[in-house]
């Protein structure tokens, strides 16, 4: 399923699954902020990670070659 802000290469590499996982884990949808104000979630067209997708930006850091387990580790490690 093509969502606004997704592209084919990222979709083929699992970006939609990763995004849905983030929505579930954080309890918010695209364009929303968690009740504690710690996380916001948005789709973007491209972050230039074609060879290392799926990826996301967390604050100023880019995290590439993500798996659902790695996403959980990253989010759970935050203060």
Overview of the structural elements:
The structure is a single chain. By secondary structure, this protein is mainly α. 33% of the residues lie in helices and 8% in strands. The protein is built from 3 helices and 2 strands. The protein has helices at residues 8-12, 15-26, 68-76, and strands at 56-58, 61-63. A two-stranded antiparallel sheet has the order 1-2. The protein starts with 7 loop residues before the first helix and ends with a helix. The mean pLDDT is 89.
Give a quick summary of the entry.
By secondary structure, the protein is mainly alpha-helical.
Task: Supply the key terms.
two-stranded antiparallel sheet
| Gap from first CA to last CA | 34 Å
Percent helix range: 25-40%
- Low-confidence blocks of residues: none
Order of adjacent strands in the largest pleated sheet: 1-2
Work out the helix count.
3
Order of helices and strands: HHEEH
Biggest β-sheet description? 2 strands, antiparallel
Q: Helix/strand/pairing class, anyone?
A: mainly alpha
Gyration radius, in Å: 12 Å
Determine the mean pLDDT.
89
Total beta strand runs: 2
* Beta-strand percent range: 5-15%
Approximate shape: globular
Task: Please give the structural blueprint.
Blueprint: H1 8-12, H2 15-26, E1 56-58, E2 61-63, H3 68-76
Antiparallel strand pairs: 1-2
């Amino acid at each position: 399923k093509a969502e606004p802000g997704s592209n084919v290469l990222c979709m083929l590499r699992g970006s939609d699954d990763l995004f849905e996982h983030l929505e579930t884990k954080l309890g918010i949808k695209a364009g929303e902020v968690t009740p504690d104000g710690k996380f916001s979630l948005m789709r973007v067209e491209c972050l230039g990670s074609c060879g290392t997708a799926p990826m996301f930006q967390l604050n100023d850091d880019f995290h590439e070659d993500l798996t659902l387990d790695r996403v959980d580790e990253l989010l759970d490690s935050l203060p």
